[in-house]
Every structure is written in structure tokens, then in C-alpha cells.
Design goal:
about 230 residues, 9 helices, 2 domains, elongated
Length: about 230
Amino acid sequence: MYNIVFIPLQGGYRIKYTPIFIIMEILTIILYSIDVYIRIKDHKDLDVKIKNEENHIDKEEKHIQDFNILKKALKANRTIIALTIVSIIPFSLVFQLSGIDNPLLVIYYLKCLRLVKLSPILKVFESIKQRILNFGRIFEMLFLYYTACHIIACSFINIAYLQDDIRNTWLRRLPVPQPTGIRLENNFNGLPDSTIYVHALEFTVNTVSHLAIGEITTINYQERIYNAFIIL
């Protein structure tokens, strides 16, 4: 949950790493490294079992089924190992320490690569679905939907910070409603981070859901291109 919540926010707002966040990064790296070690051992065990099944594959139908199951398990395990290795790399911290902490969208999504490791949470949903199928499916769908919206919302914040003048971004109408329609000055007065995030999340949910409320609109070409991509 630390990765899902904090990493997009760090990318959007370029939050400085305090000792507590550095500790969380170290714990994440340790846990993911242990996970990789365990899965590599499992990978070797599966490989041995597959070789044993190959010796009996022509003898019984059961061995053929077992062989196919093991091959699928080996492939899935290999994929999880690759995703976990990618997730070990603390892109956000590395970029910040190296001074490459700018709001370019490519940098933002490199930071979010840590989020490819969602399998532990998905396993929780699988266990819930085994007990309460419909509730588990609904809860899983809502979680994945709002996780995606959270990532996209933070990316919209990131794009807005590319501009020197917030009046040339979607931020110019915040907080909604503006007495004059748009902000007349280039400052963040009366616009705390929490307000920006809530409006970004609402705008993202409306966009992803194909709702055209119109209280917040994209302004510059970067925002419009990105918004068009999200709508697709």
C-alpha cells in the first residue's frame, strides 16, 4: 500500500524523501529481495519437477496434465520474478538523489514502475473471492479502478507542474467554482495540495468514465494529448 499511495504522489508533487520514507524504501527493497530469493528457489524446484515429468510424459495421461500445469506455473513464476526485480529499484529515490527530479511525464511513469508488483494484493482478493465471490469481485474491481485513477490523477498534477504559469494549465479553474471563472494570478493562494489532488481525482474519474461535466478542462497541448490518450 505504501507504493500504491505514496509513489504516484511523490511523482506528482515531487515530495522530498524524509527519513521515514527512506526507511519504507529500505524495507520494501529488503522484502522484495527476499521474495525474489524464495521465488528463484521455487523456480529451480519447478524446473526439476518438469524434467522428471518429461521422463514419464509418454506413459500416462495424468503425467501430460501434470507437465502442462508445471509449465504454466514455471512461466508465471518467471514473470513474477521479473516484475519483482523491477519493483526493487527505487526509481523515485534514485531520481531525487541524482537531481533528475523534474516533472517530465516519462520520469513520472518510470517512478511508477514500482507498482507492477501488485500480486500480493491480488492474492488477498482471490482469498476473499473464495469466501464471498460477488463481494470479492466488486471490491477488486473498485480497488483496481481507483488505483488506476490515483496514478492518472497524480500524472495530471505532474503535467501541470511542467508549466511556469498555472493559468496555462487545468489548475486555472481551481478551486471550483472560481468567482471570475479562472484564476487571475499566477500563484497557489487558496490552493493546497489536498485541494489539487481531490480535483485531479474527480477530473480523472470523469475522464475515464467518459463523463463531460466541464468544470475542469485541459488547456495546453500536453494536457489535451494526454487526456485524449486516457479517454481511449
